[in-house]
Amino acid sequence: MSLQELYQEVIVDHSKSPRNFGKIDRASHAEGYNPLCGDKVDVYVKLDGNRVKEISFKGNGCAISTASASLMTEFAKLKTIEEVRKVSDEFQSMITHEDYEPHMDIGKLAVFQGVREFPTRVKCATLAWHTLKSALKGREEIVSTE
Ligand code: ZN
Fold this sequence. Notes:
single chain; 146 residues; Sufe protein. Chain: A; binds zinc ion
């Protein structure tokens, strides 16, 4: 199996059976929308101090947006807000920069690096991250990638 096929398999798996799917009551919440593709994602997060204690998402979108949200919730759980911000920036630069050089290990999130060859899908992959950032600010907010 090539690395590309392995990556594809992880994305298909997470889009078909998303992890941490559902709503968390009394959590900080933000809603994201990507009008280019029609993806919608709601992110719920509960903090313990400055650490993510619980995180989940709900949404309606393409395979890439769903898989990205699913892998994001797995990754962000129990991380500090600072760690989440760093990883979010790293993820963003990985899928938008042609000459990307890794600055840190982002684990399974690396499966999305192929997305940079499809500029119209970049926003599908980053939507959940933008929405999480906004949920971490603790305000109800509607985020649009436009
Ligand atoms: Zn999409």
